[in-house]
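Sequence in, structure out.
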Amino acid sequence: MLRDRAGRAVRRTGISSVIVAGLQLTQAIVLARLLAPDEFGVVSLLLLAVSFGQSFADMGTSNAIIQRRETAAEQLSSLFWLNIAAGLTLLGLVALGAPAAASFFAEPRLQTPLLLAALIFPVTAAGQLHFALMQRELRFGYLVVVDVTSVSAGTIVTVATVLGGQGILAVVWGQLVTACVRALLLLAGGARDFLPSLRFRRADLSAYISFGLYQLGERVLGYFTWNADKILIGRLLGTQALGYYEIAYQLVIRPVSVLNPVVTRVAFPIFARIQNDNARLRQGYLEVIRVLAFVGMPLYLGMSAAAEPLVRALFGPGWEPAAAVLQVLALLGLFYTLGNPLGSLLLAKGRADVGFWLHVAALIVYVFAVFIGASWGISGVAVALVISSAFILFPLEVPIRRWLVGMRLGEYVNAFGPFLGMALAASVVVRVFDEIFSLGSPTGHLVLLVAIGAAVYLVGATVFFRPFLRSVRMTLAGGS
């Protein structure tokens, strides 16, 4: 049954996402304790460039492969070589643009690492087609192995080289190793299903180009939407301010990085299989929202309530300015979590064009918000982003969901509202205990606050959300 396969996929992808996020957080903690805030800001700019290039790795065609369900071997070969050509083109463009990027941010330390990081793009492109095919066939067990193995290898290399005195370059070596291991595993695991031939025909690509171009445009816009704050902070406020902001952002993005793959890798291919049944799509979408809210609401509200002890315990002295940013920026994570599944729904319905224009709107709103907020420093940027998400972008999604699957605002709010209320109650308790009690050890104090908040939330969930918890257990157990 599809529900059984969904349960299996959610369980495997969830485990993988938790492990990967834990490794990435560990890496960020080590880097923060060994690098100065301005060096950490340079690392942030470097990773921005890497993630931008990776947006082009498959020219937007991977989701078209999943959505269409059937693809001829000749078409797959042409798509494979299209990806390789895109990766090599990116390598050349970044190599040529590295001096300009260093000049734009007034940061000469960025140029050499960026030149080396450009090697990641053709390596990543080599495995993208097989990754899409595995997603389409719901081969999430193998994808878990790919993710955990590649990120583990990259984290080990990053930590070892930064401890060896490589500084900013340590991040480049780690990213290169991650990309190489990932591509090799994808090619090896996908060889049984597809081996590319020496075929490249424009006619093979025509059915995928229009969908892919919208996807590519959406990814590029999505990249700037998600990263406009960091780009403009780096430009307007400098790398030290960006370093503080990046620490807060890393903590906020970790839960999203755990929850996002479950949505994009599992929900999209499953939604695509029932794309013509609006009633099932609507119900599936609301189930996804409930799960995301159950996990995401307490994480983000708890993070906001315990921002200062969290930063002190994880990153040590010198990072105190990041706590004030985290206190506000954590609220943005709530909107990221609730808005994330809409992209999978749009793709399943074949409406990548709508996603593209949504990102256009979000980019415009966020750029204005960052420019306005930057007058009050990095905390001002965080406040401006939260306000624009709450009062402009979040309401914009309401008519789109109704148009796609007939979803009313009331049933959408009812899907996450109870979890929001329970999480608010738990976060208030955490804040009160933080003010009343103070342990000598920052780590011990944080552990106490986490234990108190988790206990309040879980007891409340057991009392008030019992049917929901039973449904989740049945879904996960169904894949056993």
